[in-house]
Design a protein that fits this description.
Elements (H helix, E strand, L loop, with lengths): L5 E8 L4 H12 L4 E7 L4 E6 L5 H11 L3 E10 L22 H11 L23 H22 L8 H21 L6 H14 L3 H30 L8 E5 L5 E5 L8 E4 L9 E5 L2 E4 L1 H4 L5 E3 L4 E2 L4 E2 L4 E5 L7 H13 L4 H32 L3 H14 L3 H19 L3 E3 L2 H7 L4 E4 L1 H5 E12 L4 H12 L5 H9 L9 E6 L3 E6 L2 E6 L1 H7 L4 H12 L3 E7 L2 E12 L3 H10 L3 E5 L4 H11 L2 E3 L4 H13 L4 E5 L5 H6 L2 E5 L12 E3 L5 H36 L5 H20 L9
Parallel strand pairs: 15-22, 15-24, 22-23, 24-25, 25-26
Antiparallel strand pairs: 1-3, 1-4, 2-3, 5-6, 5-7, 7-13, 8-11, 8-13, 9-10, 9-12, 14-26, 16-21, 17-18, 18-19, 19-20, 20-21
Helix pairs in contact: 2-3, 4-5, 4-7, 5-6, 5-7, 6-7, 6-11, 7-12, 7-24, 9-12, 10-11, 10-12, 11-23, 11-24, 12-23, 12-24, 13-23, 15-16, 19-23, 23-24
């Protein structure tokens, strides 16, 4: 039997445009054993699905290096019988223990001898340390510019050399470009931008336009440099999240002592101290201390959140209150920020339908442009008696105009920026296809418990009958003290901070309530049915209980020495932003419905308060059936739930959205997640998708529009090589800059 497919992820250094990604994709697919490849320029990563051979990593790294980029294994392989392709994808951190994986050794060797292979072109160091102007690409561009300027000055001072002095100036930039063109051609991409550039420059020299050839090469390199800067900015936008986590943490030791340790060494269960003004070093639970935490760096929430013992905190947030002691609940590699970065990097490798269409189109578009350029250069002189030099010049200009860079980058740049912007606000989408689909949603089906509501009961009414309401609450809280039952916790939270009397002889009655005594006063707290067995209940009290039940509330009755002392009503309350979040969906033209397994009375009470249509008492398969029926009626449906008991409906919906908080988000089931559990974020996610798709439309229009204009002016003889390269690089930079605007996206108020 064939070995199960495995996946390996690589970090690829030096990519700065979609053309780079396409060349890498094509080249790696030619490696024997590789089944599929996904490349993200913005994340600087590549996922390879392969047959699981342990030697594949070395071949993949070698193939990527032939193109002049640098690749290294990232994380572990997934799939296969033992989660392994051996050294194909092991951890590259020798400090973590064990030998360096074979793939990483191969990658290191490639780096050591990179210059021997002659791949010293401008794509080096796309992910290099240091500012962009110190990287090899910038230095090479500056060298080409100085060479062009020197040639221009010499031609002005010594006109006799003007015919040939621009040729060496041109070669300063063209030689590395031509090397890349050759490397791309032999690895499966003959019609690369570098190949078109090389043909155009050499052709210009042959027809006596060496000065323009040198200028065009320099402008091309400037355009590439600007693309690289833009790509670096997009990459930094999400990677910048990782820098929010401090490098060290104050770990509690024996006797209350503290020592500084690297955050990578924090283990689950460790206790760390966070002083006022410090960043939280790890996801965890507050053990002691209280105050407000600024979560804006992670969630975008402008108002600091109060934290008490037992509350969850996230790595990278800022402590604005007293000293906190926090128990670590996730290692550095698995904290909220690390998970966000990893999820977004993986999502950026998953292409949207529009992006896949543009890439398929570009594979035919570029050869088509070459054919048109050849016909423009040959047909008029051959059949119309036109000047050969003039029409060859126009054909070369069309080659440059036809470069597909701006068109190819139009979609992935916008998608990458949108995914990054969403992630910084707790909106996680599993790839471009999901991002594209979310904006088409016209119906959102919400679960109730934990989605539209807080997911836990809260005391809503305390009614005194034989005793006053305050005493009823304190006696009930005393009886329930120490119980972990959700209703008991709700009563305890309502009575927090009050002095509770001591209870004698307290005991639980299985499923019926609790009994005990306080200062000789016999007490019972439990269901109305059990209370009626203990005391006679008059019609007025029964009517109040019925009214509370009709409102969807659970009622506990406190009985003292043969009389009803009071009533305590509890219910699962709507989230604070549920009503405003549903209103935002309505403004966006999206219908909202509630699908819940809860009882009809509780569901109707929440539905009436929030103004949402309700279907209640549903089994998981009922929810799936209703979602399918909505789809058959022509609706594009998003299902929002906890991702576990709603799994069938989430899988059936056009988009499944998990709602949760922190590290317990059910991302495995859903296509997307609202990380911070805000109902309003569902509308924000739809708005983000629509903004991204509008941006993509603008980009495609700009890319094709500029090319159409310059194509016409070139054929008419109005523009030449210089404007042609500006039409390509200028459009690419313009499209990239427009896409980067999405990094500053904010949800509508």
């Amino acid at each position: 039997m064939p070995a199960p497919a495995a996946q390996s992820r690589f970090r690829v250094q030096g990519m700065d445009c979609a053309s780079c990604a396409q060349k890498i994709d094509t080249a790696v697919r030619r490696v024997e054993g590789v089944e599929d490849v996904s490349v993200s320029v913005t994340a600087g990563t590549m996922t390879v699905t392969h047959a699981g051979a342990a030697t594949l990593a070395e071949a993949i790294v070698r193939q990527v290096t032939r193109l002049g980029f640098r690749a290294s294994a990232l994380g572990e392989a997934s799939g296969g019988p033992d989660r392994a392709c051996g050294g194909c994808c092991g951890h590259g951190d020798a400090a973590a223990g064990g030998d360096r994986p074979h793939a990483v050794q191969a990658e290191a060797a490639m780096h050591d001898h990179g210059h021997d292979h002659g791949h010293d072109h401008g794509h080096d160091g796309g992910l290099a340390e240091g500012p962009w102007w110190k990287q090899r690409r910038a230095i090479l561009t500056a060298g080409a510019g100085l060479a062009f300027l020197a040639a221009f000055l010499l031609a002005w001072l010594v006109p006799a050399v003007a015919g040939w002095i621009f040729i060496p100036a041109m070669l300063v930039g063209l030689v590395p470009i031509a090397r890349r063109a050759f490397a791309a051609a032999v690895t499966g991409t003959p019609f690369s931008i570098e190949m078109l550039m090389t043909i155009a420059a050499i052709g210009a020299v042959l027809i006596g336009a060496a000065e323009e050839a040198a200028a065009v090469v320099f402008l091309f390199m400037v355009g590439e440099l600007l693309e690289g800067v833009a790509a670096g900015r997009a990459r930094a936008s999400i990677q910048g999240l990782a820098s929010l986590v401090p490098a060290t943490a104050r770990v509690e030791g024996p006797g209350g002592t503290f020592r500084e340790v690297p955050v990578e060494r924090l283990a689950v269960g460790s206790v760390v101290q966070v002083r006022p003004g410090d960043r939280v070093a790890a996801d965890g639970l507050v053990l002691s201390g209280s105050g407000e935490i600024d979560e804006a760096p992670v969630t975008g929430e402008s108002v600091p959140k109060p934290k008490e013992p037992g509350d969850q905190v996230f790595a990278g947030t800022v402590n604005g209150g007293s000293v906190l002691r926090i128990e670590v609940t996730a290692t550095a590699a698995d904290n909220t920020i690390a998970r966000i970065v990893k999820l977004v990097e993986e999502a950026q490798e998953k292409k949207a339908p529009t992006e896949r269409f543009i890439q398929r189109f570009s594979r035919w578009y570029t050869p088509g442009v070459v054919a048109v350029a050849a016909l423009v250069a040959v047909l008029p002189p051959l059949f119309g008696g036109e000047d050969w030099q003039e029409w060859i010049y126009k054909g070369l200009a069309i080659l440059l105009i036809g470069c597909p860079c701006a068109l190819v980058i139009s979609t992935p740049a916008a998608i990458a920026a949108a995914l990054s912007a969403g992630a910084r606000r707790g909106l996680l989408l599993k790839g471009g296809a999901v991002l594209e689909q979310v904006g088409r949603v016209d119906t959102v089906a919400f679960d109730k418990t934990g989605t539209l509501t807080r997911g836990r009961p809260e005391v809503t009414d305390v009614i005194g009958i034989a005793l006053d309401a305050d005493r009823v609450l304190r006696l009930a809280a005393a009886l329930e003290a120490g119980s972990s039952h959700p209703l008991a916790r709700a009563i305890g939270e309502r009575a927090a901070g009050q002095d509770l009397p001591a209870v004698e002889g307290g005991r639980a009655l299985n499923g019926k309530g609790v009994m005990g005594s306080v200062d000789g006063l016999g007490l019972f707290l439990g269901s109305p049915r059990m209370a009626r067995e203990l005391v006679a209940m008059d019609a007025q009290v029964s009517a109040r209980i019925d009214a509370l039940n009709e409102a969807g509330k659970t009622v506990a009755v406190l009985v003292t020495d043969g009389a009803v002392a009071g009533l305590i009503a509890m219910s699962d309350q709507p989230r604070a932003d549920a009503k405003s979040g549903l209103a935002a969906l309505h403004r966006a033209g999206v219908r909202a419905v509630m699908l819940t397994g809860d009882n009809r009375r509780a569901a109707d009470a929440v539905g009436q308060e929030l103004g949402i249509e309700v279907q209640a008492e549903l089994l998981p398969d009922d929810k799936r059936r209703i979602v399918a029926a909505l789809q058959q009626g022509g609706c594009k449906v998003a299902k929002v739930g906890d991702g576990i008991n709603d799994a069938p409906a989430l899988a059936t919906a056009d988009v499944g959205i998990a709602m949760g908080g922190g590290t317990d988000v059910a991302l495995e089931t859903a296509d997307a997640a609202v990380l911070h559990g805000r109902v309003g974020d569902v509308a924000a996610m739809i708005g983000l998708s629509r903004s991204a798709m509008a941006n993509i439309t603008q980009n495609i229009t700009m890319a094709l529009g500029l090319k159409a204009v310059f194509l016409a002016t070139t054929v008419l003889g109005v523009t030449g090589l210089w404007p042609a390269i500006l039409a390509d690089t200028g459009a690419t930079v313009l499209v990239t800059a427009n896409a980067m605007r999405l990094l500053a996206w904010r949800p509508a108020a």
